Amino acid sequence: MTLLVIGSTGTLGRQVVRKALNQGFQVKCLVRNFRKSAFLKEWGAELIYGDLSIVESIPISLYGVSAIIDCSTIRANDLHDIELIELQSKYILIESAIKAGIKRYIFFSIFNSFNYKEIPLLTLKLMIEYRLKISGLNYTIFHLPGSFQGLISQYALPILDKQFIWITNEYSLIFYINTQDVAKMAIHSLSIDQFNQNTLPLVGNKSWRSLDIINLCEQISGRRAQINTIPVYLLNLLKNFTKLFQWTWNISERLAFIEMLSCKYNTSAQMKEILYILQIDERELEDLEVYLQEYFERIMKKLKELNYQILSNKKNINPIEF
Ligand SMILES: NC(=O)c1ccc[n+]([C@@H]2O[C@H](COP(=O)([O-])OP(=O)(O)OC[C@H]3O[C@@H](n4cnc5c(N)ncnc54)[C@H](OP(=O)(O)O)[C@@H]3O)[C@@H](O)[C@H]2O)c1
Tell me, what DSSP letter sits at residue 78? Predict the structure, then answer.
């Protein structure tokens, strides 16, 4: 099976490419910048030029492809093109997939999005979900919660950088998952019929309150967090001014995204069933504690090396020059 991965330079996409190559799939990556994507070629993937905002580049990228995994999403600096990238290009991708007789199509949407139809990005995602459902393609739509990787910029870096962390005063529970585990399950699902024409949440094992994640980061890093709390009613006011919801964008959007991802219903039974079908033991999914421990160990080691280098450079400086 030859896969076309779209969004392969992104947080999830690169993990999908790596897992697929490890599993012996031939992998093509639709990329808009060959220099930025060179690492994918080094891993063994084939690079094909394509840009979702240049829709003519899409159909030709499907040549020789049997499955599509779409991990793309709009970047913050392309917001003016949101409809083109999140809707029109994806409609064309689906039409082209039908014409090309694509055997499997995986799309990633956002957990809980049907409760937030007033948000443009989520509405566009829902429209693509609907288009896939009536396409006749063998699609799988995965609804994703927050990612472990997103927590680094949200909590870990501000703690290391002595910056404020913003949280809401509502202590709702949110699921987080490592994108490596999402990639593993998505690749695994390609060969399992129960995933055909199905929409499923991939939420991981455990839900967290923001404060518990901050406490965990504090314990592991040995540093104190500086926390600012924003009342939910104020956030709701701010939400009316936001257009999109993504990690790493402005604070109100990020908090609103967290608010949206909070678990209003229990998905653990469904997750257990998915793991059962995939024959993956839930202990194989990485725990957030382990992920953060490894992250902080790596970063602390780097910081120590950097400090050591600065100190030894200072010692070598001629006092007159200094
Ligand atoms: N991250 C989360 O916590 C989260 C939560 C829920 C759902 N999801 C969904 O999961 C999927 C993956 O998210 P992610 O966080 O991995 O995304 P990401 O890191 O922001 O990556 C986005 C990818 O889309 C590509 N892309 C954007 N515009 C493009 C264009 N015009 N032409 C071609 N490629 C383009 C980017 O390529 P460049 O490198 O060239 O910009 C990049 O490879 C998305 O569907 C997202 O909505 C993510």
Answer: G
* Helix, coil or strand: residue 139: strand
Indicate if ligand 1 lies below 6 Å from the C-beta of 11: yes
Spatial CB neighbours of 272, under 8 Å, sequence gap ≥ 6: 282
Kindly state if the Cβ of 110 falls inside 6 Å of ligand 1: yes
Q: Ligand 1 in contact with 57 (CB < 6 A)?
A: no
At residue 46, the 3 state secondary structure works out as strand
Main-chain dihedrals φ then ψ at residue 118, nearest 5 degrees: -75, -10
Q: What is the pLDDT of residues 66-90, one digit of tens each?
A: 999 999 999 888 888 999 999 999 9
| Ligand 1 pocket, residue 51 CB under 6 Å | yes
Q: 10 Å Cβ neighbour count for 99?
A: 10
List, for residues 164-219, the tens digit of each pLDDT value: 888 877 677 888 999 999 999 999 999 999 999 999 999 888 889 889 999 999 99
Output DSSP code: residue 107: E
Q: Say if CB 105 and CB 3 are below 8 A apart.
A: no
Angle at Cα 36 formed by Cα 34 and Cα 42, nearest 5°? 75
Task: Quote the crossing angle between the two packed helices 210-221 and 288-316, to the nearest 10°.
Answer: 40
Compute, in angstroms, the gap from residue 210 CA to the centroid of ligand 1: 24
DSSP class per residue in 10-31? SHHHHHHHHHHHHTT-EEEEEE
Atom of ligand 1 nearest to the CA of 54: 31
Closest C-alpha residue for ligand 1 atom 40: 32
Distance CA 126, CA 96 (A): 19
- For a mutational test of ligand 1's pocket, the pick from 4, 6, 8, 12, i.e. the residue with the most ligand atoms closer than 8 A to its C-beta, is 12
